[in-house]
Input
Amino acid sequence: MQACQGPARATRKPAFIVPPGSCDCHAHIFGPRQRFPFSPHRSYTPEDCTADQYRDMLATLGFDRGVLVQGGAHGTDNTAMLDAMERLGPRIKGIAVLPPGTPLREREALHLKGVRGFRMSTVVSGGVGFDQLEALAAEAEEMGWHLLLHFHRSEELVAVADRLRRLRCHYVLDHLARIRAEEGTASAAFGTVLSLLETDRCWIKLASLYRLSGKPYPHADMLPMIHRVVAARPDRMIWGSNWPHPIHTGPMPNDGDLVDLIPLWVPDAGHRRQLLVDNPQALYGFDRRTLPG
Output
């Protein structure tokens, strides 16, 4: 079982000022473990990373909204995430990890608490894998939710692409489908991403891309892929910090530095507003009354 390093606790205030209503679409809450024990089936053990710490980090970055993604250390017990969502209020939505077969009444209760999708992963143990794709997609569609697909390797996307094309619900390819910079825009996986974006049901999350780069910050080798997907479908891009960066074994990024990459990734101000404000609004269904002002 892997022990995770903690995040950079002194978040740097970024130079780039995000537009009002911006949303960090990917973060995790872990613990506190005295109240919310970790799953015995987990593949990693993180430090406690709490709702209060996430609130402070968001404030430093200048973000008004956030999305909590159930982390693998808690398995299918979503109570730590739900507790954090309640503490942080309606400006926070959530993505749960649950097996197919969760009764409709329970899913409706989760919806009222702000849950807007299911996460599936081949990266961590104790969750839900792609063998359950169609069953979970049907339950997501019934709720008006989406699937968040977390791949270990980009080849897995190619393997399930035909199944994704048959889904009726929307789905998000987490972390740019794990396509590494060395694979690039000529790879089969990247071609699959572009073709799936044509379906209107596919979304891309630009998060944790430092893991996919072969170069140090600012990870310039990722720019060709980022610019291509943004140009193809600026209305299907979202951004996430990936705080507190679990299972990362390299130098721990400062989240302020990650925010300062946004104008390099998305030079057009209109596209940046889509990435940070409009697209999260559409995908997660935030109440517009949670916008500042």
Q: What stands out?
A: Residues 93 and 114 are 5 Å apart (CA to CA). The radius of gyration is 17 Å. The chain has a mean pLDDT of 95. The domain at 18-284 is CATH 3.20.20.140 (TIM Barrel).
